[in-house]
Write a structure and sequence with these properties.
Elements: E1 3-9, H1 15-26, E2 30-33, H2 39-50, H3 56-76, E3 80-85, H4 92-103, E4 108-112, H5 121-126, E5 129-131, H6 134-146
Helix pairs in contact: 1-6, 2-3
């Protein structure tokens, strides 16, 4: 049985690569998807596709809506959503992704350092599991698919 896993959130560390490597090492039949993780591409897609905006609000607005087409489609098609919150930047988009996935009844795993547990208590309450390492996420996926832990 193949699963589709959407990886949302923080883009400044290699957590996605760690999960991809762990899934490959475990031989799991899992497809991974994510938002566009290049800031320039993600933030500028509205201007590049629909034309430039002078007002930064409207530039961000167009880009956010175009990115949402991709993100919502990938969450809609996901069997599991992993949401990573880093400690360096605010990931408002990740909180939205978690809420959207929860509204659809998708299982969610949050991934964050222990220091963020209190700040993310409401998001964690919607999650099926709260992990602190990418390796824990891989182990949860492996157990969910195979029953091995």
């Amino acid at each position: 049985m193949k699963w589709n896993v959407y990886l949302s959130g923080e883009i400044h560390t290699d957590w996605r690569e760690q999960i991809a490597d762990g899934i490959k090492r475990s031989g799991l039949d899992v497809g991974l998807s994510s938002p566009v993780t290049d800031h320039e591409t993600s933030d500028g897609c509205g201007d590049r596709i629909l034309g430039p905006e002078d007002n930064p609000f409207w530039k961000d607005h167009k880009a956010a809506k175009i990115n949402a087409i991709r993100i919502r489609n990938q969450i809609d098609n996901a069997d599991l959503v992993v949401v990573r919150f880093g400690d360096q930047y605010r990931q408002w988009n990740a909180a939205f992704d978690a809420g959207y996935a929860a509204a659809l009844g998708k299982p969610i795993i949050t991934l964050h350092d222990e220091l963020l547990t209190h700040a993310l208590k409401e998001v964690n309450a919607a999650a099926m599991a709260s992990a602190q390492t990418p390796q824990q996420v891989v182990a949860i996926i492996e157990y969910s698919l195979t029953g091995r832990c």
